[in-house]
Amino acid sequence: EVQLLESGGDLVQPGGSLRLSCTASGFTFSDYGMTWVRQAPGKGLEWVSMIYKNSLGTNYAESVKGRFTISRDNSKNTLYLQMNTLRVEDTALYYCAKAQGGIVQGWHFDYWGQGALVTVSS
Amino acid sequence: QSVLTQPPSVSGAPGQRVTISCTGSSFNIGAGYDVHWYQQPLGAAPKLLIYGSTRRPSGVPDRFSGSKSGTSASLAITGLQAEDEADYYCQSYDNTLSAYVFGSGTKVTVL
Question: Which residue of chain B comes nearest to A104, CA vs CA?
């Protein structure tokens, strides 16, 4: 059974930093791309970042580019999101998800964690 | 404002058929990228419902079906049930943004 468990969510002041982790089990982690998607309170889903298998490439939403860094440790089956220079508008539930598909037709996200809450407030 | 536009809400009585539209552009759906659909019940994580525009993951009832034409896609739910009450999101890739994009979301209410 595929399981994704996020951790690291917290209350942080504007301008601060936080690192989220997502521990995966139930599949060969190194064989798949992984992604972060966030959802602000009462709002819709917003894609944040994606990392391809074996860290062959990464991409980011414009709203987080230059502030957030996605990475992975395949030996630990863990995905990370380093978030710097946090803003109030980054407040959201952050989901990690397993990616499936390909570059030609696009990727979809077939398994999701339960989310980690990040609150940016003074 | 979302790149993919969905109606804010749709509703139907139990047993009825409802459809949710997802309108994009020539930079995403119209460029040939697949459309995927997710179901998110209140307070729960999203769940993949349709992938590759028309395919259902194992375990998803065949009451759910997807289609795609031109710059738009649709999700149909037939035989509406109380448990189908949830928010539904479409998702694709946009080549001008170089980003994965979600629709604005549609709340389905079972009357």
Answer: B33
Q: Does B46 touch chain A (CB under 8 A)?
A: yes
pLDDT of residue A54 exceeding 80: no
Cβ of residue A47 closer than 8 Å to a chain B Cβ: yes
Q: List pLDDT tens digits, range A93-118.
A: 999 999 998 777 789 999 999 999 99
Closest residue on chain B to A4 (Cα): B45
Strand partners, A22: A6, A79
- Provide the token pair at A74: 């395949």
Residue with token string 């380093």:
A82
What phi and psi, each to the nearest 5 degrees, are found at residue B20?
A: -120, 125
Q: A52 touching B, CB under 8 A?
A: no
d(CA B58, CA A25): 19
CA distance B66 to B69: 11
Is the separation of the CB atoms in A98 and B45 below 8 Å? no
What is the three-class DSSP state of A89? helix
- For A64-87, write each residue's pLDDT tens digit: 999 999 999 999 999 999 999 999
Residue numbers in B near A111 (CB within 8 A): 48
Per-residue model confidence as pLDDT tens digits over B32-59: 999 999 999 999 999 999 999 999 999 9
- Average pLDDT of chain A is 95
